[in-house]
Amino acid sequence: MSTSRVRAVLLLGATLLIGGVVGAAAMMYAGKSGKGPYPRNRCEVDHQRVCMWAEGLQLTAEQQVQLLGVYQAGEARMDSIQRTIRPAVDSLYQMIRPVVDSQRLQLRDEVRVLLTTPQREKYDSTVSSWDEQRRQGARDRSQQGPPGGPRGRP
Predict the structure, then answer these.
(1) Collapsing DSSP states into helix, strand and coil, what is residue 42?
(2) Contact at 8 Å (CB) between 140 and 25?
(3) How far apart are CA 70 and CA 77, in angstroms?
């Protein structure tokens, strides 16, 4: 396989992994905040997906506990996979990061040209906030350690 093809496959894998992690984090946040789409009034355990099924399938408390065990075992297996590929994903991200950052800045410059002065000020403020959230997320991830470590899973 050619170098460019390997890089493309790694980039695709990294993209899927990052999307999955972000999606999982969003679901966990929504579940903890009570803002998720699934009511928690019938749920006997603290786990987003179990609570979703508890409502939808009218699970008993015993079934909920059993389902929680299934999900926790599956999450442990997924964490093991993530630990295996994490170094490659991190390496790939470090390789593409300058290009991604450059494209982000170029896109922002192209957008700014289209905006009025008040719109540009609001746009700049918004993207500054996004940048700070991205930096904070990176700091938080670096403090969490590798996947599979203690992260306060529900």
Answers:
(1) coil
(2) no
(3) 11
Q: What is the spatial distance between Cα 24 and Cα 78, in angstroms, rounded to a whole number?
A: 12
Inter-helix orientation angle 117-144/61-113, to 10°: 140
Closest alpha carbon to 68 in 81, 49, 85, 82: 49
Percent of the chain scoring above 70 in pLDDT: 82
Per the listing, tokens 């999450």 go with 75
From the DSSP assignment, how many helices (H) and strands (E) are in the chain?
A: 4, 0
Considering only residues 92 and 140, tell me which one the structure prediction assigns the higher pLDDT.
92
> Which of 122, 132, 152 has the alpha carbon at shortest distance from 46?
152
Write down the pLDDT at residue 145. Answer: 55
Query: How much is the average pLDDT of 86-106?
Result: 91
Please answer whether residues 28 and 48 qualify as being in contact, where contact means their C-beta atoms are separated by less than 8 angstroms: yes
Token pair listed for 68:
């929680």
Buried b (16+ CB within 10 A) or exposed e, 43-63: bbbebbbbbbbbeeeebeeee
